[in-house]
Write a structure and sequence with these properties.
Layout lengths: L1 H97 L1
Length: 99
């Protein structure tokens, strides 16, 4: 009976030691989780900033290309107009030359 009591007492001490170790591990894990969450939050914010910058850069380039296309379209219309004038003048000169 005394041996059983001593064995139970030793098991209780072992359990107490194990509980303390697990509580300390739980506390360390909690700190690590909080640190990981903070790092994740910072990384997420940095990613959002980078995505916004990429989006803005893409929009700026799109606007620049659209402006260039509009300018080229205007130039094309002007060249078409000048070509038509030259054709009319050429036709007029040919008519004058024939008479």
């Amino acid at each position: 009976m005394v041996l059983a009591f001593e064995a139970a007492e030793q098991a209780l001490k072992d359990l107490s030691t194990r509980q303390q170790a697990l509580e300390a591990q739980e506390q360390r894990d909690g700190v690590a989780i909080a640190s990981g969450r903070e790092a994740l939050s910072k990384a997420s914010a940095e990613l959002q900033v980078l995505q916004d910058q990429v989006k803005a850069l893409g929009e700026d380039q799109l606007l620049a290309v659209q402006a260039e296309l509009a300018g080229l379209d205007t130039s094309s219309r002007e060249l078409d107009r000048q070509a038509s004038q030259h054709k009319r003048k050429d036709s007029a000169y040919k008519d004058c030359a024939m008479t």
